[in-house]
Amino acid sequence: MLQRPVDTDINVYHRLTSVVIGEEALREVWMDKQDEYSLVPGCPSDRPLKSNYFYFSLKYVPRSPPCVSHPLSLIEIGTVLPVVVNRPILSPEQVQEETEEAEESTPKLIDGSSPQGPLSPGVQIPEASGGVSTCILCGCIRTTVYCDDHNLDAVPPLPKDTTHVYLRFNRISKINKNDFSYLNKLQKIDLTSNIITEIDEDAFRTLSNLDELLLPDNKIRQLPELPHSLSFLDLSKNRLGRKGIKQEAFKDLKDLRLLFLTNNHLDHIPIPLPDSLQALHLQDNNIQEMHEDTFCNMKDYSYARRALEDIRLDGNPINLSKTPQAFMCLPRIPVGRLI
Question: What does the alpha-carbon distance between residue 318 and residue 288 come to, in Å, rounded to a whole number?
Fold first, then answer.
């Protein structure tokens, strides 16, 4: 049973099936666009329930750049639960005969294999921890893994072809060296709102395709080595302080566009910053001064940093009016105190 809300504006055709096998659900999703979906166990609240149906919802979340919100649409899916049939107890000979008859009646492909043989390529069966598949404990849609708000205290084993992983609102306290190292296709890690205090120095360094690393609202005191592929790094609401960011930590991140370091007890602006940077958020720190060459090149007055249009220094004790020369190369004056 597949029902789609009348008021939805999803312009995507899709086919979804859910088959209940014992205590595990095998789910397949076919889509013609690279959109993200999230399967949420639950029941529809606006219609009567059928006792022989297993319900869950599909949350549609269009891909979008950061800070852009979209309305969510829900698609309700139900599948008939297995029906228990009372059957007489068979002798071993009768079981053998019945099995042979079933095999003979099963259609075969040209190569002689059964169409009900190996699972189709669209179905992922990832590595399991403690006998429970991560994708059954959490939820997997194509190469995206959703493990939000599952009270996890460590990063679970993930499918090797994972590209996006969401581990928000858990109780993870440490990121180990091998938690992500085997995920060569990983593009996004979101660990928002955990209790991370320690990250292994090489936990992210070898992830050559990692584009977004989101670690806000944790207790991180030391920034580890970062992959040069990053374009978005969010470390807001942590405890980096004066020594948490190594010297020239961002120098080689040539593709970095967004750097968020809000509320980290910082007393300085970490430099040098790559020319690719478009937004630098440093609100609610303890930055008291800025040098004239923090953003600009005082030896070359023709130098212009045109990409860096969004600098936030509000909530710091620094008086921006004391260093007007520091903003000459910028397209806009930073947001902050001017008196």
Answer: 4
